[in-house]
Design brief:
By secondary structure, the chain is of the alpha+beta class. Helices cover about 50% and strands about 20% of the residues. The chain has a 3-stranded antiparallel sheet, covered by helices on one side. The radius of gyration is 15 Å and the shape is globular. Bound molecules: zinc ion (ZN).
């Protein structure tokens, strides 16, 4: 394993151990969206809740269980998009999906800055069975954002 791969492994293990944003937070006075996603092939589960104030994600929390990759991925996502605009979150989701399709290769463009710590999952792209684990939280975020926006005129 290269030094870079070891560093990425460490980022994932740290987040799997200390999961950021975990514990659903009650929301009042914001547009709320919530999504429950299950990855049956591995047994991962996540429920993710967002609260929008206009175009800003004012609140993001989640609950879940499963393998290290699924849990670390939603923990890192939580750090990355909480407090950001919807536009920024959607761009980050797109970049992460592309990273998962890249078969273990880095994106090689300026979206790597957007991905930050989520770049640690680059190696997962080599293992189709694990891609679903890494994407679970991001699918929940996509759905929760759509739900929160759905109630608007
Ligand atoms: Zn998993």
């Amino acid at each position: 394993m290269s030094q870079l791969e070891q560093m990425y492994q460490q980022v994932i293990m740290d987040h799997a151990r200390e999961r950021h944003g975990r514990g659903l937070i009650p929301i009042e006075g914001l547009d709320v969206g919530e999504s429950h996603q299950i990855n049956t092939s591995c047994g991962d589960e996540v429920t993710l809740r967002v609260g929008l104030d206009g175009d800003t994600i004012e609140s993001l929390s989640w609950e879940g269980s499963g393998c290290s990759i699924s849990q670390a991925s939603v923990s890192i996502l939580s750090d990355m998009v909480d407090g950001e605009s919807i536009e920024h979150a959607l761009a980050t989701i797109d970049a992460f999906r592309d990273l998962m399709r890249a078969k273990g290769e880095p994106l090689g463009d300026d979206r790597e800055d957007l991905l930050g710590d989520a770049t640690a999952f680059v190696g997962v792209g080599k293992y189709p069975a694990r891609i679903k684990c890494a994407l679970l939280g991001w699918m929940a975020l996509t759905d929760a954002l759509a739900q929160a926006q759905g109630g608007r005129p």
